[in-house]
Specification:
By secondary structure, the protein is α+β, with helices and mostly antiparallel strands. It has 21 helices and 22 strands. A hairpin with a 2-residue loop joins strand 18 and strand 19. The N and C termini lie far apart (115 Å).
Amino acid sequence: MAKKQFKAESKRLLDLMINSIYTHKEIFLRELISNASDAIDKLYYKSLTDGLSGMNREDFTIRIDANKDARTLVISDNGIGMTKEELEKNLGTIARSGSLDFKTAMGSEGSEDGNSQPLQEGETIDIIGQFGVGFYSAFMVSEQVTVISKAFGTDEAWQWESKGADGYTIKEAEKAEHGTEITLVIKADTEDERYTEFLEEYRIRGLIRKYSDYIRYPIRMMVTKSRIKEGSEPKEGEAPEYESYQELETLNSMVPLWKKQKSSLTDEDYNNFYREKWFDMTEPVKVIHTNVEGMLSYTALLFIPGQAPFDYYSKDFEKGLQLYSSGVMIMDKCPDLLPDYFSFVRGLVDSQDLSLNISREMLQHDRQLKAIAQRLEKKIKSELLDLLKKDREKYAAFFKNFGLQLKYGVYEGYGMNKDKLQDLLVYYSSFEPETAKAGDAEEAKAPLPVTLAEYVSRMKPEQKYIYYAAGESIEKIDRMPQTEVLKDKGYEILYMTDDVDEFAIQMLREFDGKEFKSVSADDLEIEETEEEKEAAKKQEEESKDLLEYMKECLADKVSDVKLTQRLKSHPVCLTAKGGLSIEMEKVLNAMPMDEKVKAERVLEINSNHRIVDTLNRLYASDKEKVKTYASLLYDQALLIEGLTPEDPVAFASAVCDLMTE
């Protein structure tokens, strides 16, 4: 029998198919199963449009048979099959797709013979294959490929066979039923590749579950099972005797959960699917199931996890949603579907409108993908806002896990996404609900974070700024000396405990027309009465020389020393001028940097504390002791801020000397 040559520069092109187009060799099984599904689709749609009787969707099947001894893997279907001419056209010419031809003809005329008849309600033309190269992926794992096919409505069967780029043969064959049978002779194992795995039951199962679980026709294979051997009656205390047997089993689930009506699904259905798919035993906080139809149609099933993965905030974490095209998985993690600030979302998107590249592993054009991503972003935000509004406790749990990522989203790109994310931010604050003030122990024990909008709605009429305090913990922030005057005036304070908080706030700058201001800023700009202003000015004048001297004593440690009205019980505190706060200084200096940064520190002394009288008295009689006191007060302020005195030994000695006077 004369061997025929491939068309379209066969050797070079087929070599490209085998070695360059596909990233993973395992893709071959997905491609062949998808082709089998297409063949069944063609016959099923033909039966609908041509009015053929005696054909039901339940009668169609795809069969897998593996023989490790013979090293053969057979994929067969009872679809439309191919004539000799179609075998020649579709398999003899690389990159010629019979599926695309069929889809084009059906889409334009209704049926292949031009006798247009409408499909039944709910039926659509959804053929997977388009490029005509998927079949040749079989040569990645096979040394020989044999195709026996019998076209529906004909009496003849034909065999196509090839060992690769050298060419192929076509001859008449025997086949009882219509459809196609593809036999792969799997390559021998090498040092670099273990091809035998594609003949192993567990591996075939895994690949079908990964890529083809939602092919709409049953994929069946004889599988090995075990049972108690018939007739064996173990004695008490003895293990029963088992025997192996073969049974035909359907390996795919066929109907994707996300294709079912939402009204027919329960929380348990979603939770079970989530657990099985992402191996997370914690129930998701939120399930988002949406179906969009129109110019761009897709279905999305998204989950907001109940806890952060162990590697979520590490460089090893990979974001992305699973991407399906008509139920066939194209990508396990498609990063382009999610912005970084929503990278915690798990789930999948299924669309038949995607422009796939030749290997169906990536998108050929990203216009559709970008459009889907934009809609998903809006949907995720909308659902999170809904959770925030309806279940603050559950949202607080979500924010504890993933709020840090939202804050990074506000900060990154110089705040380009701040308007999208600011409504999702929540913080614990000094606000006490009326129930807590009235003695409701439960409410007081479990405070919930507040939104920026809620904070602004509670601002005093004379309050100019949204005040916040940054520190290691809520408890430490609540005890900060700088918060005393604000609490005294009834101003609410937002508590910020994450390293990124102040950086994100600088990007926000303001919310609803109100600027943010740190409680550690050198000027809180709190309204004072004329009497308070006069008293402060008088005291400042009286202590002017003292304060200048203390500033000289502390040298470059501080940029200024001044009296303050912001403190009530504490004698001293540190504040900062400019954009770099003391808390930001700590965060930046904890990073690996060649040069350390330093905030422009201001030592503020409580003007109503008796320490002022002591300092003024000593300034007149013993300036050397004032120098010691200045150092002590500065180190005390450092400790309050969680910083270490530059000379702890000198600090301890000075305290000891003071105690023994």
